[in-house]
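Continuing the batch. This is chain 6 of the set; chains 1 through 5 are on the previous pages. Same settings as before, nothing changed between runs. Recording input and output for traceability.
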Amino acid sequence: MVDVFDEVEEQLRAERYRELAIKALPWVAGVLGAALIIALGVWGWQSYTTKATNKASETYAQALEAYQAGRNDEADRLFGEVAKSPSKAYKSLALQQLGGAKLAANKPQEAVKLFDEAAEAAPNPILGDAARLKAVFVLLDTAPLKDIQTRLDPLLKEGRPYRAQAREAQAFAKMMAGDLAGARGDFVVISLMPDASEGARARANAAKSLIDSGSAKAVPAAVKAAIALPPPTPLAPGAAVPGLVPSGSQQQAPTAQ
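Output for chain 6:
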């Protein structure tokens, strides 16, 4: 008799489990479907980014080749294509190249804008801080020291990849602003920094000597005067430089009729 009750109870329990399983089936199916969608989405995104990175790499290499061959317009067009890529690294590099082109064309404000965009797009401090430093060096002789310092403060923090270069930029910015004592202090730090290059330490020692001799006071004025000078007027072939006495052969040359 006990066996009969046990068998009935087992059947009832099995029936309850089956009903629970049937009720839970839609939820389980939904969870599995969502997991599948997520997995497919991740795979698709990875595939997309891989293809985009490969394409950006190829286009970037073509742009460099065009630039080295002197085909600057083609290079700028190709760099512009890479700058629209979802690959953050190549986008940052391309924007920096375009910034360099603007700087070469004597368009510093446009160059700074592109360097700032490159820093924003960069996936890591290696690329981002490089772009930020380029912007600082473009602004070094025109922007107020306060603005330069705001840009440099994050780059001077412990662990940033270009701390020594940022310290050097800060020193030169202070020198340009007439803060020779502050600049000298920075140059002393650079000369003692273990991660500073030999060139940076040499420049720091030379700058200290310049400051100690009193000659550094003329540096800001000289730089600003040089920036304010108009571009030189191109001369025709064979023409004498204005203000210079022509040589004897030039004095004896017949005058064109």
